[in-house]
Structure formats: C-alpha cells, structure tokens
Design goal:
CATH class of one domain: Alpha Beta
Radius of gyration: 21 Å
Largest sheet: 5 strands, parallel
CATH topology of one domain: Rossmann fold
Strand order of the largest sheet: 1-3-2-4-5
CATH architecture of one domain: 3-Layer(aba) Sandwich
Order of helices and strands: EHEHEHEHEHHHHHHH
Strand content: 5-15%
CATH superfamily of one domain: Creatininase
Helix content: 40-55%
Length: 308
C-alpha cells in the first residue's frame, strides 16, 4: 500500500489497519471564489489540494515509515469576496463542520492532523486556527494549520531574499513594490495556475493592468469597486511558472520542518501560530470568563432568593 493514501478509496479494514503512531491526516479546505476574468473560481480549492498532496509526498519521501491519509478536499470557506462565482458560508458553520469531521477522525484514534488552505481571507484563516485550537483542547489531538504564519509573512514581504535565491535573480524594484499588494488573482495565484492547471488560465491575463490596493481596502464588497471591477487585485500580467516554483519551494521547505515535527508527535503550536492565533486565544478566554461570570451571578441570585 502506498504511504500516501486517499481516505475515500480505502475500505474500513484498510483504514483501521494503519498504525496510528505513524499516520498523519491531511485535510485541504478552501472556498470556490471568483478570481478575475482569467482564472477559474476553483483557484483556492485547487491550490489547497496541490499543497496537501505535494506536502504528503515530500513527507513520506523523507520519512518512508510514515503514512499520510489524505481526506477529500472540501470546497468551502468563509470571508470570500461578494461577487458572481463566490460561495461563502458563515464562520461558525465552517468551524463546526471542521470540528465534526475531526471528532470522527479522533474517534478513529488518528491524533495528528494538518489543515491546508490557500484562501487568504483573514476571517477564514482565523476560523481555521480557532478550529485547530478547539480540536486540541476538546479531543486531545495535535492539529495545526502549517501555512497560516507563512501566508502572513509572505504578504508582508518577509521572504523576498528567499524568493530571489529560488529564482536565481534579483527582483526588480517594481516587482518588490507590487508583491505586497498582490492580494487576489494577481501575480502569485495566476502563476500557481500556470504551474498546476495551465489549461484553465485565460490568455487575457497578459493584458490585465495592475490593480494595487491597500490592505485596509480589502472588504468583502470591494471587488466591484476596485480597478475596472474585474475581480482581481495585484499584477496578473507578471505571472510565470518560475515564480510559482520559486515560492512553492519556500513554502514546502518551511512546511516540511513543521510536518516532520508533527510526525514525531512534537508540539508545533508556536511555530504555526500567526498573529491571528492571539485573537483566537483572547476570544476563547473572553468567552470562558463571560460564561463563568454568568454562572456565578446565577448562583448568587438563586442563593439570594432562597435565603431571603
């Protein structure tokens, strides 16, 4: 049996026979969302599946005694741009669905799980990080979102030197200025589709003018109002397979280190946490504190009414 396994293609005895201490479960999840006139609505979904499968292949190549169980990719997500072709669900629905799936996996005694997402919506990532946090607390498993911290750093331009090294050339000043504004269906995502699904990329991408926006302008209703309202933010015309290869090389290198530690059962929470993780923890303790306060007040009033 191959060390990279597809959950839906196995029988239950085959699933049950997997050694739990040597098996990780990878779950790719990203929404269907418009990505300009040149890309399919499945960009994030395709990318998430690509990263999950390639990361699995890299891991078992480095650790031949490990297995990776690929759960079927799920085409849903939160915090998408409100535009034709975008399908969005509520954050709590996304969180609940992930936790229900993970609850079953935990019951099957799989306790090392990694989520993969290629959708950069901050509230989507926040929800996935919260799901990981709650799954660790509720089910006693190790569950991480290895790409969250890297995504934030990539958008901040913290990997410029690594990108230049992987490309084998210096980035032009115009490229350095464009990258921090490459939010949606731009340079990177068009490059990724040229790499993994070139037949789905419309040639018009070469003629699209840059639409450079600020982060604070990224609202879910922003797409029709930016540029010519064509559903992209960034510089699609700069796209190339070489750029996709260079950036994925960096992401896989960063992810491989974390996933190897997960395979060994080590705690990788700190390495995979982004700034969003602090919000998750703050929200958790705030809700818990509020619940405790309500309980104390109820007990107080019950005692008060009983004694008086």
């Amino acid at each position: 049996m191959s060390p990279v396994l597809e959950f839906e293609k196995l029988s239950y005895p085959e699933i049950d026979a997997l050694p739990r201490e040597k098996t990780l479960v990878f779950l790719a999840i990203s929404p269907l969302e418009e990505h300009g006139p040149h890309l399919p609505v499945g960009v994030d979904f395709f990318n998430a599946g690509f990263f999950a499968r390639r990361a699995a292949e890299n891991l078992v190549q480095a650790r031949p005694d490990s297995n990776v169980l690929l759960y079927p990719p799920i085409p849903i997500g939160a915090n998408t741009f409100r535009f034709v072709g975008s399908v969005w669900i509520k954050m709590r629905t996304l969180k609940r669905m992930i936790l229900e799936i993970v609850r079953s996996l935990a019951r099957f005694r799989f306790d090392k799980i990694a989520l993969f997402s290629a959708h950069g919506g901050p509230f989507h990532l926040l929800t996935l990080e919260e799901a990981c946090f709650l799954a660790r607390r509720k089910f006693g498993i190790k569950m991480i979102l290895p790409g969250s911290a890297a995504t934030v750093k990539f958008l901040r331009g913290e990997y410029l030197s690594e990108i230049e090294e992987a490309l084998g050339r210096k980035l032009e000043e115009a490229e350095k200025k464009a990258l921090p504004h490459d939010f949606h269906a731009g340079w990177w995502e068009t490059s990724m589709m040229l790499l993994i699904y070139p037949q789905l990329v419309k040639p018009v991408y070469k003629t699209l003018e840059p639409v450079l926006v600020r982060f604070r302008d990224l609202r879910t209703d922003a797409i029709p109002k930016l540029g010519k309202g064509e559903g992209y933010m960034g510089s699609p015309a700069r796209a190339s397979e070489d750029f996709a290869r260079a950036t994925t090389q960096i992401f896989f290198r960063l992810g491989q280190s974390v996933l190897m530690k997960l395979a060994d059962g080590q705690n990788t929470d700190k390495e995979t946490e982004s700034i969003l993780s602090k919000i998750v923890r703050w929200k958790f303790w705030l809700v818990r504190s509020a619940a405790i306060s309500v309980i104390i007040l109820l007990v107080f009033f019950l005692l008060k009414s009983t004694l008086w």
